[in-house]
From TrEMBL:
Record PANTHER family: OS02G0221600 PROTEIN, PEPTIDASE M50B-LIKE-DOMAIN-CONTAINING PROTEIN
Protein name (database record): Peptidase M50B-like protein
A matching Pfam family: Peptidase_M50B
UniProt keyword annotations, A-Z: Membrane, Transmembrane, Transmembrane helix
């Protein structure tokens, strides 16, 4: 799975096929920075999410060490949960709701028709996998997301948080 994700993440034409998954992954990472900033009294100045470049959160105030580490800690925790979902059907079903909502939210910012169509396809797969062989396919889908978030994204994304 790591080799497949690495290839899809970096090969120019093919990388567009996983844009919705990249937006989910990068969006969660940046959401963790935002949450830490707000919890530590900071103010968000700018937030960007791009499937090709990564994400950035610009913050004023707050606790820099807490804000900077939150993206990686949050991604690791959610990635670990998705890895566990690869071995437990109930956890996979619960996390499928997180994934379902997480795939739809970035569509507010997306104007690319291919990404919108692919997101609808990934959502359809998510729903369909609930019913294939007692959700075994859903477990593999969650495992794929877990490998993407837990193993590869900290090394592949160029997301950043900075404090002013």
């Amino acid at each position: 799975m790591s080799v497949i994700i690495f290839g899809f993440w970096n090969v120019p034409v093919v990388r567009n096929l996983i844009n919705p998954l990249k937006l989910f992954t990068i969006g969660w990472h940046e959401l963790c920075h935002v949450t830490a900033a707000v919890l530590s009294g900071g103010r968000i100045l700018k937030l960007t999410i791009d499937p090709h470049v990564g994400g950035a959160t610009i913050v004023e105030g707050g606790s820099p060490w807490f804000i900077l580490s939150a993206g990686y800690v949050g991604s690791t925790l959610l990635g670990g949960a998705f890895l566990i979902a690869g071995w437990d059907t109930l956890v996979a079903k619960i996390l499928s709701f997180v994934l379902g909502v997480g795939l739809v939210i970035p569509l507010v910012l997306v104007r690319d028709k291919l990404t919108i169509v692919l997101t609808v396809g990934y959502e359809a797969m998510l729903v369909g996998f609930w019913f294939i062989d007692h959700a075994q396919a859903l477990r593999w889908y969650c495992l794929f997301i877990g490998v993407m978030k837990y193993v590869l994204v900290p090394h592949l994304s160029s997301g950043q948080a900075s404090t002013v």
